[in-house]
Amino acid sequence: MGASIAEIQQEVWNLLKASQCVYLATAEGDQPRVRPVTLLDIDRKFWIATGRRSAKARQMLRNPNVEFCLPLSETCGTGYLRVAGISAAETDPETRKKIGAQIPFLSEYWSGPDDPNVVLFRITRVEIEYLKPGEMTAVTFLVQP
């Protein structure tokens, strides 16, 4: 018998570290754009920090639909974690301060979370597709914001 959805969800959250590299897809018009970014999982909420003038920031502000993929590999095969959601720039100063304090590289590139040149995007209305390495069928589920 297979794992329950609760067990699968827990397995997915165990795969997501506080900060890791994923491949983010945005759209520029009708052209998809994919690049590696640092994804932050803070309290089971997804965040991306980037420069306000970056291409990804402009694309996410114009079209908030995003996806990211985390490739998974084990000796028994390959799999992936694919997440689709809606990005929104965080404007609340207290939230920016709280999240910014948990981003190690923020002070390397900007003066802090209140720097007008940094945008913190939260990804909400999340759909997760998980293909466990070595399996043939992915499991899809929604995460409530």
Which keywords apply here?
145 residues; Pnp Oxidase, Chain A; 4 helices; 49% strand
Write the layout of secondary structure elements.
Blueprint: H1 5-15, E1 19-28, E2 31-42, E3 45-51, H2 55-62, E4 65-74, E5 77-89, H3 93-100, H4 106-109, E6 118-131, E7 139-143
Antiparallel strand pairs: 1-2, 1-4, 2-3, 3-6, 4-5, 5-6, 6-7
Task: Note the gap between the termini.
Answer: 30 Å
Main sheet, how many strands, which sense, barrel?
6 strands, antiparallel, barrel
Mean pLDDT: 90
Q: What is the number of independent domains?
A: 1
Rg over CA atoms? 16 Å
Q: Which class do the helix and strand fractions yield?
A: alpha+beta
What's the arrangement of strands in the largest beta sheet? Answer: 1-2-3-6-5-4
User: How many extended strands?
Assistant: 7
Q: Helix content range of the residues, please?
A: 10-25%
Q: Any idea what the CATH superfamily is called?
A: Electron Transport, Fmn-binding Protein, Chain A
Proportion of residues in β-strands: over 45%
- So, CATH architecture? Roll
- Can you count the helices? 4
Secondary-structure element pattern, one letter each? HEEEHEEHHEE
CATH T-level topology: Pnp Oxidase, Chain A
